[in-house]
Amino acid sequence: PSSNFEEIGKAFVMHYYNIFDTNRAGLQSLYQDLSMMTFEGEKIQGAQAITQKLTSLPFQTVKHEVITADSQPTASGGVMVFVCGNLKVDGSENPMKFSQVFALQPLPNGQGYFCYNDVFRLNYG
Amino acid sequence: PSSNFEEIGKAFVMHYYNIFDTNRAGLQSLYQDLSMMTFEGEKIQGAQAITQKLTSLPFQTVKHEVITADSQPTASGGVMVFVCGNLKVDGSENPMKFSQVFALQPLPNGQGYFCYNDVFRLNYG
Prior knowledge:
The structure is a homodimer. Chain A is of the alpha+beta class. Chain A has helices at about 5-20, 45-55; strands at about 30-40, 40-45, 60-75, 80-90, 95-105, 115-120.
């Protein structure tokens, strides 16, 4: 399932940040109970808890800009995609730099992928 | 094998950068034929080709400083570790910021882990 890993990784990332920037609560559909997120060092497990965390982040508007997205097939038949980008919140003109990695696993029904591993860090400069 | 994933991730990272900074050619032992690296967007496969790339990087001395290392268990019984840090080459006083993710898989003999996925990016600021 990971022969077209570059397309899968890039498509996931575009989809993910589009939802993040327009309807954060909708991110829940991209996670499952087994999903793990580490957000700035804080560990969170499961689609519901991860969505709760992401929707409670203290900004009203956010815009992610992907600068690089590097994908590789994983040992479990999924895709790892590593993103570096810029993040602007609440209309600020000064972007923050971030890095994020997702390990995607095929959905049990074979219809796409969900996010199994997710690690997010701001890159303070 | 990933119940102590935090320890495994941190120990690997310390070991990896210690070898990188003292004897780059020794990194070959941490990869296998199946290993993949994406270095600043360039895809490289296999322990030998990865080591060739790393040993040919155009600096004489290098020092990695790990700022954060976030670990999670993977869907394949391994450990993913995501690093943000600083990098100084050839005695420069101005560090470059980097991010790197490793997905580690247990070695076939059960004696430790090797690097299955590796993505490296400098974070230009």
